[in-house]
Amino acid sequence: MVNTCITLILSSMILLAIPSVLSLDQDPVAVEQWFENLPNMTPKLTHLHFYLHDLVSGSDPTVFRVAQSNITSSSPTAFGFIAMADDMLTTGPEPNSTVLGRAQGIYGSACLEESGLLMTMNLVFTGADYNGSTLSLLGRNSVFHTYREMPIVGGSGVFRMARGVATAKTYEFNLTSGDAVVEYNVMVQHYN
Q: What pLDDT digit, counting tens, does each position of 102-113 carry?
């Protein structure tokens, strides 16, 4: 009986907390009202800085190859491989720095001549300022270039109707394991 009461109390607390976790009301009527008010809203520019931890090795990887073409193993660019990722986003390059969210999505080798990835990622924020909000990244990542620019094509929550640019720079890459830490600077325009 006591365990049932505790479970009910905790469940109620979680259900009551859900609206405060998400920055904007997401029911259809609220979304429609938000769009009706869009002409009165002021565009806002936000700069985000974080590190993505892409772990393909070890006991707790965050990336898994899910498909490959019949030429992937013989291609110098691993053309045709596709991987799913659920990478950690942190404030610093160290894995134990503050977690801001996750980069969840898919990437694959889409170029025969150089290492060029097609990336489609949802940047899912869990930190206090943007908790429950997302940004959608879709673009080409030439992984061996110093800087790579990829478009932000949308978002949700605080970043509803977002557009912008993400610039990636490899902070650390382990040739043996394939693990990488990538620094991201994101400039995104959205509405208040």
A: 999 999 999 999
